[in-house]
Write a structure and sequence with these properties.
Helices cover 56% and strands 5% of the residues. It is mainly α and 77 residues long.
Length: 77
């Protein structure tokens, strides 16, 4: 799956909301931004495992590895 929309369509939007407890508004935002918050990962992974679907790791907004001070200084880790 290449998009959040395709993933949500595959698992079913209503079922996804019910199983995860995520608000429809949050799901809509993830679809429109084409990225899911990293904090959703464990819930999404559980759904994928139950349905034998590959977890779409590329669709998550992962935190970068440097802190705010490092970003301001332009330091990459």
């Amino acid at each position: 799956m290449d998009t959040v929309s395709a993933f949500i369509e595959t698992v079913g939007r209503q079922g996804f909301a019910e199983q995860t407890g995520f608000a429809q508004q949050s799901i809509s935002r993830a679809i429109s931004e084409n990225v899911m918050p990293a904090r959703w990962y464990l819930s999404v992974r559980a759904i994928c495992v139950a349905r034998d679907i590959t977890v779409p790791d590329q669709l998550f907004r992962w935190a970068d590895r440097c802190g705010p001070a490092q970003r301001r200084a332009g330091v990459a880790t």
